[in-house]
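Quick start: read one record
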Amino acid sequence: MKRLALAAAAMTLPGAAFAHPGHTETSGLASGFLHPVTGPDHLLAMLAVGLIAALCGGRMLWALPVTFVGAMLAGAGPGLAGLALPGVEIWILGSVIVLGLLAAIPSTALPHSLLLAGTALFGLFHGYAHGAEAPTTGSLTGYLIGFTLATAALHGIGIMLGQRVSAKIARSAGAAIALAGAGLALIG
């Protein structure tokens, strides 16, 4: 637990905020995969989706991640097209905080339909950012596949964490994610 709290706190350091190293220096699949993994805002939100899915269990175990990924891919289109979407970074930072808080509360606190709708909304903004920040060289298809695979992997890590530790520890991890998101918002 201490390691998780320290890792979350480290994510709030100024050098980590909005750092997406590597996604512009590579192209295609590698670039797409690196984008969500190297951006603390994306990484934390996607881990939180996995935690929430694990804590809810049942059909939410797959429904939340699939909803996020589907909405993310839908949001990538307007980003790739260069269409304006106001407040993207605010929504992304807000998603880290809100999803972390949702992982920190009992899974029965909100209706699953509301969790799915919120997850879709946040996925849309994350996808827009991925699309808007796509490299101009390399395979666009590879890039899309890369960030989709990385997102699914991060959801899977969150699910595995949520299933392998007690609910109390998983909720504590959610709280740590929300705090890290607040830290990112303060320095962003």
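The chain has one domain: 29-187.
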